[in-house]
């Protein structure tokens, strides 16, 4: 877990350095050329820079150990700050891009100056963003391979939003640069600022889409998402195979942080067990679960009768007939 956190921190730091340099270049080029698309991209990079700062805060605060006030730890702080990063992408990037785009489309036609500077800056920005993007891609591919998943499935199930945020925002940045390049080029070729404004609006749509995807991911994790299906099914199979357990009545899991899962199992134990045997069985089962599934942070095992009507009704209300 410490190694993964170090990898995530390095990925965020690389993105922060790249975005800060790019934001300055784009802002200067936007002022010189008067391009709405370039100014929208400057706003995009400034938003990304704020985002990386929020992600660093997420990494630092989520690593705090559990205490009396937060007995399950501070793992979900990573999701809160990552949600704030998604909000930053929308408010600082998308809204500014929409403003610049509509102002250019519906305002007076403005003459573009020194488009060559815009091309050069966008080329440099593409190289710097590409370095940050490749760093994020390498981490995503390595972690997906470790878990035996495709990159697409890994990104859908990942419980570390910092890596996903950097990957998506860098991907959006590369697409945004191409849109800005096309807007400046078409403005230069036709003399119409409409294309420049349209590129800015499309950049806004792109950023709003990324913000929505990241916000939805972090919302699910903050609410309390079930653990990965591999852990859920594996834990259920292990519990069902224990000699002392007759029936797995209920199994609840929740992601409480990156690589941290809370598991609660209600089990119908064999009737001939003494209280001492039951206690020893619970200790042994917990140890076996932790050994097989290292993400399990807290485990609660509750002996219950399988025929209890109230409990059975709650389980069926949650999952339906199984």
UniProtKB/TrEMBL annotation:
It is a multi-pass membrane protein. GO terms for molecular function: monoatomic cation transmembrane transporter activity. It comes from the Bacteria. Keywords: Membrane, Transmembrane, Transmembrane helix, Transport. Its main location: membrane. One of its GO terms (biological process) is zinc ion transport. InterPro entries: Cation_efflux, Cation_efflux_TM, Cation_efflux_TMD_sf, SLC30A9. Residues 12-220 form the Cation efflux protein transmembrane domain. It holds the Pfam family Cation_efflux. GO terms for cellular component: membrane. This is Cation diffusion facilitator family transporter. It comes from Actinophytocola oryzae. The lineage of its organism: Bacteria, Bacillati, Actinomycetota, Actinomycetes, Pseudonocardiales.
